[in-house]
Specification:
This protein is an all-alpha fold. The chain contains 14 helices and no strands. It is found in: Cell membrane; Membrane. This is ABC transporter permease. Belongs to the binding-protein-dependent transport system permease family.
Length: about 325
């Protein structure tokens, strides 16, 4: 219990630091959203309209402490400001519209890649020294391939040349979103090639990492003792070896889940997929500071929550963290 309490206090402090940095960085940068909008129309804006825009974007001439208090108040009420790129749509609406696409694609494929990779890593380590070692060079090569290059090659072969998959987009243009068979089928069909690309690009890293940890753990005395006691092979492999070897992978998986909220920018840009990563790319391209600020806040909170979940999982997997006073 003390372990979890310390972690909660630590992550509460980290969350406060992330929120504070998210407040300070845009205000330390030159310019502001209103100046960017005025520059786009070459300054042909009525001064009263400029003042109204400054008020709409939450800009104030008050001291920094007053602005910080107002920012925290707006944050707790869910007000992250207005987007420049999608003006006058609020930032929270833009992010909430892109989030389901990212979680549905990047989140699901991250979990699939982790499950396949760790499971295969356990089996390859348990059968080390056999014909299964022949997979290692191929996995190393697959892990070394740059993701964007793999994505471009798969798009060229299976989407452009063979025409088996759509080239881009999340669904067929013109379809009305809804819980109907036609729309769901279109969404799954458009997500299949990006999903295959993500799994191929990620699972090799999980396999290699898990195999290396398993080989190390299999040399420990407690594993040798379990085998000498005549315990079933499956029990030794899963409860003694894999349970301890998976601990570093849990940390990496938690970080991966945290970055899911940020989307995979390369994935979504290459496939023109309307997720958080693609929206963040548009925000950077259009210098949309409110949208970037809101997205960085979402990503920071997601990473913090993912790490907290990983620490909770550690309590159940690793008895050393369950220390009584």
């Amino acid at each position: 219990m003390r372990y979890l309490l310390r972690k909660l206090v630590l992550y509460a402090f980290i969350a406060w630091a992330a929120v504070t940095m998210n407040f300070l960085i845009p205000r330390l940068m030159p310019g502001d959203p209103v100046t960017l909008l005025v520059d786009r129309v070459q300054g042909q804006v009525d001064p009263a309209a400029v003042e109204a825009l400054r008020e709409a974007f939450g800009l104030s001439d008050a001291n920094i402490l007053r602005q910080y208090i107002d920012y925290l108040g707006s944050l707790f009420s869910g007000d992250l400001g207005l987007s420049i790129t999608f003006y006058p749509v609020p930032v929270a609406d833009v992010v909430s519209g892109a989030m389901p696409w990212t979680i549905g694609l990047i989140g699901v494929t991250t979990v699939i890649g982790f499950v396949i990779g760790t499971g295969l890593g356990v089996l390859l380590a348990w059968r080390r020294g056999s014909w299964t070692d022949g997979f290692l060079p191929g996995l190393t090569f697959l892990n070394a391939i740059p993701y964007f290059w793999m994505a471009l090659v798969l798009v060229m072969i299976f989407a452009v040349n063979l025409g088996w998959f759509p080239v881009s987009g999340a669904h067929t243009p013109g379809l009305r979103p809804g819980w109907n068979g036609e729309f769901i089928t279109s969404v799954l069909w458009h997500a299949l090639l990006p999903a295959i690309t993500i799994v191929l690009a990620s699972f090799a890293n999980w396999v290699i990492g898990m195999r290396n940890m398993m080989v190390t753990v299999l040399g420990e005395d407690y594993v040798t003792m379990a085998e000498a006691k005549g315990l079933p092979e499956r029990t030794v492999m899963v409860r003694y070896a894999a349970r301890n070897a998976i601990l570093p992978s849990i940390t990496g998986f938690a970080l991966s889940l945290g970055t899911v909220v940020g989307g995979s920018m390369l994935t979504e840009v290459i496939f023109n997929y309307p997720g958080v990563g693609y929206t963040l790319f548009q925000a950077v391209k259009n210098q949309d500071f409110p949208l970037m600020q809101g997205m960085f806040l979402y990503i920071s909170v997601a990473v913090i929550i993912a790490n907290l979940i990983a620490d909770v999982v550690y309590v159940f997997l690793d008895p050393r963290t369950r220390q009584e006073a």
